Amino acid sequence: MSYIIMGVSGSGKSTVGKLLAQKLQLHFIDADDHHLAPSIAKMSQGIPLTDEDRAEWLRKLNHLLKQAEAAGQEVVMACSALKEQYRLVLQQNLGNELKIVFLDGDEALLRSRLSNRTGHFMPGALLASQLETLEVPANALKLNVIQTPEELVQEIIQHYPAQGSSIQTSGRTGLT
Ligand SMILES: Nc1ncnc2c1ncn2[C@@H]1O[C@H](COP(=O)(O)OP(=O)(O)O)[C@@H](O)[C@H]1O
Ligand SMILES: O=C(O)[C@H](O)[C@@H](O)[C@H](O)[C@H](O)COP(=O)(O)O
Fold first, then answer.
1. What are phi and psi of 97, to 5 degrees?
2. pLDDT digits (tens, 9 = 90+) for 129-155
3. What sections of the sequence does the record tag as coiled-coil (predicted)?
4. Ligand 1 pocket, CB under 6 A
């Protein structure tokens, strides 16, 4: 039962996902690290991705989740997963249901967080298209990101008790 921390750009997926993984001693996967190079180039230029751009990326992420499940590992994955159809691809052929956490926030707050973030390829200009694309999940723990990362992680742990299949706290798992 792995965790998907989802939401638009700037909602805190990477920050909260990393902290959750650290607290639960689980491996952390940032879906951003698995985008195809042309997708990174597009987003860097302020061009939103299409369903087609995301298709192979989502299959790769599903593969990583299946690998982890087969190895008896839970992982924490930070992934935008904006549409229901994307979340279905992530869940495909997994025996256990993913624990989905939706990080929700006011547009002005997200915009200000993106404008303060440095060293990232994603421009704040794409926030509007991210919000337009977003399909709010029905089957998720929905949290407001006005809270601190620590508070958010506490709520996630309370809502979705861990299964206890912890692995190394840092470094690589061999998942490719
Ligand atoms: N709950 C929070 N409270 C305050 N700042 C946050 C919070 N979550 C994330 N941030 C900050 O907001 C920015 C965007 O967070 P990030 O984790 O990169 O979001 P995402 O991965 O969803 O794009 C970062 O600069 C991060 O430090
Ligand atoms: O599906 C997408 O359009 C992307 O995955 C996008 O949602 C994601 O936000 C970028 O990868 C930027 O990364 P950050 O979310 O870290 O800004």
1. -75, 135
2. 999 999 999 999 999 999 999 999 999
3. none
4. 7, 9-15, 78, 113, 116-117, 145, 148-149, 152
